[in-house]
Amino acid sequence: MKINIVTLLFTLLTSFAISCDMKSNLKKEQKVEAKKVLIVITNNSKLGETGEKTGYWIEEFAAPYYEFIDNGFEVTLASPKGGFVPFDPRSNEPEAVTKDVERFHRDVTLQENLLNTKKLADMNEKDFDAIFYPGGHGLIWDLVENENSIKLIEDFNNAKKPMGFVCHGPAVLRRPKTKEGKPLVKGRKVTAFSNAEEIALKLVEVVPFLIEDSMIFRGGIYSNGPNWESYVVVDENLVTGQNPASSKDLAKELVKQLK
What we know:
- The protein contains nine helices and nine strands.
- By secondary structure, it is an alpha/beta fold.
- The strands form two sheets. Strands 3-2-1-4-5-9-8 form a seven-stranded mixed beta sheet, sandwiched between helices. The chain has a two-stranded parallel ribbon with strand order 6-7.
- The protein is globular, with a radius of gyration of 23 Å.
- The relative contact order is 0.14.
């Protein structure tokens, strides 16, 4: 009888210990923080001197945004001035509307966040795991020469953290440099909105520079696919996409690098 009691006590204590260990492991798993992505968006709504409106391209923002949050990532939105960020009206025309764009318009929380973006000057590379720039012509005028943007990109690159730029987004790679003082794109494989696509839009005389030419001039190994078709280039932590159609594929590559 004594042996049975001892055996019973031993069994109960062992079960208790195993249960405590499982709960401890579960708590550790629950404490794993979600990956944090910083999305940088333009505040500019003027298409040069044309009198027309521009901004960020909805699909180029929405497709990656939902790819990130659907994978459990935390997303912070920032812009040069903070506050409201405008989208390009052309990106809301019927032929440009995708399922992600439809979801974007239904997302009340996101719309609220887009009215209250953080100031870029308050952002720090150490607080994030990756950075992403959606395109749209707007950023060519307010982010390319922005010192806060340039420093952030340099900091992310020096830390070897994933960086994504799609369509006109890669224009912001014009100024950042490496630790050695060389153009960040020099010797690296990249893509961006092509000269052919800019010509097709009849905006060559409107934009301050052509991104394809800018990248090649700075030593980037530029390549592109057919107009309007998805084309993504990966060079270690630097991920670039050619046009709106590349947005989701680019985001999937960033997700892969973060997991």
